[in-house]
Write a structure and sequence with these properties.
This protein has helices spanning 11-23, 34-43, 60-70, 84-92, 105-121, 151-162, 170-181, 187-201; strands at 2-7, 26-31, 48-52, 75-80, 97-101, 125-128, 131-134, 139-142, 145-147, 168-169, 211-214, 218-221. It is built from eight helices and twelve strands. Strand 7 and strand 8 form a beta hairpin.
Length: 224
């Protein structure tokens, strides 16, 4: 049974969501604050973390940061509807998805299952040239030194590396990150993030050897 830690300080949401998730086959434990969540994460093992960003005690960002630094579990943020700043901040610190409040429980369960499939089915190691991706922990290394990427940078790089040697159309890349960034993704988003990735992983960003542009189509990762 999938073990879920729900970090939420609204008692009504906790009661309703806990009951629905249990009926959907999840084992749910809940806490209402940052320190309680971190304490449980240090003591127990979970398969998925659901975190409300706004907590009466502390905040969801700190819980996500602890989870990403100390565990191997995916994180879904529960956010106030239309709070663009919280969404972007959460994704940049490594959250795997988000869902705005008020949300439909069935939609949340669908998103939870989607994140778990991606997390559980993905190979754990990808390499090309002097770059290594440890997918299980969401870490990227260049020549053995960690490279710090935002959530969207990481998602695009992982997509390219997991399809090494294959040309990925820009539309495919947009589709892949749409679930995470939603309305914030445009065609120009892909261009901007590819440029940022090259600046971080290429020895010479102006003459890239790893992420190649296939004009009029998209991008491909090759061995240099």
């Amino acid at each position: 049974m999938t073990r879920v830690l729900l970090v939420e300080d609204d008692a009504a949401i906790v009661a309703h969501l806990t009951e629905f998730l249990r009926q959907s086959g999840f084992a749910v434990e809940s806490v209402d604050g940052q320190q309680k969540a971190i304490s449980l994460l240090s003591e127990k093992t979970y398969d998925l973390l659901l975190v409300d960003i706004g907590l009466a005690e502390g905040n969801g960002f700190a819980v996500c940061a602890y989870a990403k630094a100390n565990t191997d579990i995916p994180v879904i943020f529960l956010t106030a509807s239309g709070d663009e700043y919280s969404v972007v901040s959460g994704l940049d610190m490594g959250a795997d998805d988000y869902i705005g409040k008020p949300f439909r429980p069935r939609e949340l369960v669908s998103r939870m299952k989607s994140v778990l499939r991606r997390w559980n089915n993905a190979p754990s190691l990808f390499t090309a040239g002097n770059i290594t991706i440890h997918a299980a922990r969401g870490l990227v290394y260049k020549n053995g030194a960690e490279v710090f990427l935002s959530a969207l940078e990481y998602r695009i790089l992982l997509l390219l590396f997991s399809n090494k040697g294959t040309v990925l159309p820009r539309s495919r890349i947009m589709d892949e990150i749409w679930d995470v960034a939603g309305e914030f993704v445009t065609d120009n988003t892909v261009t901007v993030y590819i440029k940022r990735l090259r600046e971080k992983i290429e020895d010479d960003p102006q003459n890239p050897k790893l992420i190649k542009t296939v004009r009029g189509v998209g991008y491909r990762v090759d061995e240099p």
